[in-house]
């Protein structure tokens, strides 16, 4: 085992017990039986160590899911194999999986959050490819919801063996989740995650950072919108983005006009973000 591998292994054990913030480089080096100088020869900082661990974990699981989905698209057992692969991977890397589940929702490290979201987008894409391969046009309207359900199943059920150390029959668990997923695919008819909202969620860190981007999105939506109330609301909001003058109550009402329309939900989120960033939030 190389020194870098030793550091990552021992750091993972400490992070799982104490979390990122509470674990010091001193504790890591003591656990490894090395000097701080040896640590800094491998990593410039604790943050760099965490980033490399995150890369290692997600690159491995992404490679495995890529290979499975791309090589088994006509396999009737693809979904079962996917669930089993993911749970096996979480069990194999139990300590780091625990860290991710406990730490990521509360992390203040923006670089870490952005990297994690990048990998999450890739995971979602693999699951979407699998969903489209298995269910085809039957789930065209609800496929993004199905992706979120599958990700939710993976997270919640993995906690049974990660945190509660319950003895599980993995084959039975995967069969049960395949049945649940099939039922959702067959009987769900009301979509919530639209393609537009999914696009916004994937690009939330990039969308709406400039006035030009917000105006371009408003103009595009207005051109495609048939509802006269929403079109008028977008026209008034466009003017307000250019030169804020509307009372908060009026702005709030206009944004809600956009939000209640099925095709306007994601744009309403962009507007929320924009007005909040300019100190004129409608909420």
UniProtKB/TrEMBL annotation:
One of its GO terms (molecular function) is DNA binding. Pfam families: TetR_N. Residues 24-43 bind DNA. Residues 1-61 form the HTH tetR-type domain. The keyword Repressor applies. The keyword tRNA processing does not apply. Keywords: DNA-binding, Repressor. PANTHER family: ACREF/ENVCD OPERON REPRESSOR-RELATED (PTHR43479), TRANSCRIPTIONAL REGULATOR, TETR FAMILY (PTHR43479:SF22). This is TetR family transcriptional regulator. The lineage of its organism: Bacteria, Bacillati, Bacillota, Bacilli, Bacillales.
């Amino acid at each position: 085992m190389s020194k870098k591998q030793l550091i990552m292994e021992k750091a993972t054990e400490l992070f799982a017990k104490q979390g990122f913030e509470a674990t010091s480089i001193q504790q890591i080096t003591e656990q490894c039986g090395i000097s701080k100088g040896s640590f800094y020869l491998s990593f410039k900082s604790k943050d760099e160590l965490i980033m490399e661990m995150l890369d290692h974990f997600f690159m491995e699981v992404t490679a495995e899911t890529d290979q499975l989905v791309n090589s088994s698209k006509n396999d009737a057992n693809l979904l079962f194999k996917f669930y089993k692969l993911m749970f096996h991977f979480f069990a194999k890397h139990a300590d780091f999986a625990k860290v991710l589940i406990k730490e990521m929702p509360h992390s203040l490290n923006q670089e870490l959050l952005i990297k994690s979201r990048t990998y999450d987008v890739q995971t979602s894409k693999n699951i979407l490819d699998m969903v489209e391969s298995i269910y085809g046009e039957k789930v065209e309207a609800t496929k993004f919801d199905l992706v979120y359900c599958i990700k939710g199943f993976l997270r919640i059920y993995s906690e049974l063996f990660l945190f509660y150390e319950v003895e599980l029959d993995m084959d039975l668990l995967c069969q049960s989740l395949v049945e649940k997923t099939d039922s959702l695919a067959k009987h769900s008819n009301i979509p919530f995650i639209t393609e537009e909202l999914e696009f916004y969620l994937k690009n939330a860190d990039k969308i709406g950072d400039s006035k030009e981007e917000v105006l371009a999105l408003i103009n595009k939506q207005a051109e495609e919108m048939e509802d006269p109330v929403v079109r008028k609301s977008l026209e008034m909001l466009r003017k307000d983005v250019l030169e804020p003058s509307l009372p908060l109550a009026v702005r709030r009402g206009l944004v809600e006009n956009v939000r209640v329309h099925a095709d306007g939900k994601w744009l309403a989120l962009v507007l929320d973000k924009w007005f909040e960033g300019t100190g004129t939030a409608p909420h």
